[in-house]
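User: Show me a protein chain along with its predicted structure.
Assistant: Here is one chain, sequence first, then structure tokens.
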Amino acid sequence: MVTPSYTAAADRPVSLTLIFRATLLITTIATFSRPAEAVLSVNATPEYIHSCRKADVQFNSCIKETFNHLRPYLINGIEELTVPPIEPLVIPKMQMENGHGAVRVRAILSNMTIHGASNYTVLNVRSDMNKYRIDLGLFIPHIEATGNYDVNGNVLLLPVRSRGEFWASFENVTALAKLYGVEVNKEGVKFMKTERLGIGFKLEKSDFKIKDAINMQNVIGEAMNVFLNENSAEIIEEMKPAASQAIGKHFKNFLNNAFLQIPLKVWLKDSE
């Protein structure tokens, strides 16, 4: 097991299958949910929340335990926060676009079903709650995903138009999530809002297959599919910035659906 490094881990390039791979990694951090409706009382701490105090000298260890404590509740879903079960994790749609470099494509992933996200472990935490900064290092031993894809653009000088189904498997995923938050006040109650979420990750091993519905009987199309699969590592390197941006945007919305329902005093006991 490799512990993620905090030195520019979110800035290292990763691969076109990342169009598909990248979708998954911070599945490790959160899950898709419906818009928030209810707000928890400041006077009660639900069983799924392991609260901490900023004054605790072991604060980072406490936050680590908070996220690990949350895992079994995410598996079953948290009804009062409208968070559905994450086994499987379902993502209806994600879109990304890369307009620079050798790989210039627009990709839409839809109807994604992801297994294995619930088996995450938070390895380490670095935080500065005066600035609402939290860095999480995570590990997931296995992730498997299926769904639909639609890719349009150019790889090197070759036009690519592909649409169909995909299957992907990833082993020993290490990830670093960088959360940048701000304090907000709603009717006199303070909450933390996620302003930005940066994601970086590594994969020890991956397998990937596609079933192209456009080029099924087309020789050129079949050759392109072989090219894409055999050169996926290089292509994912090119797609890394676009994929990271799309993933960060998607899960930032999830985190806000949750954070803006949980007052700071509920999970950060000595917040004012």
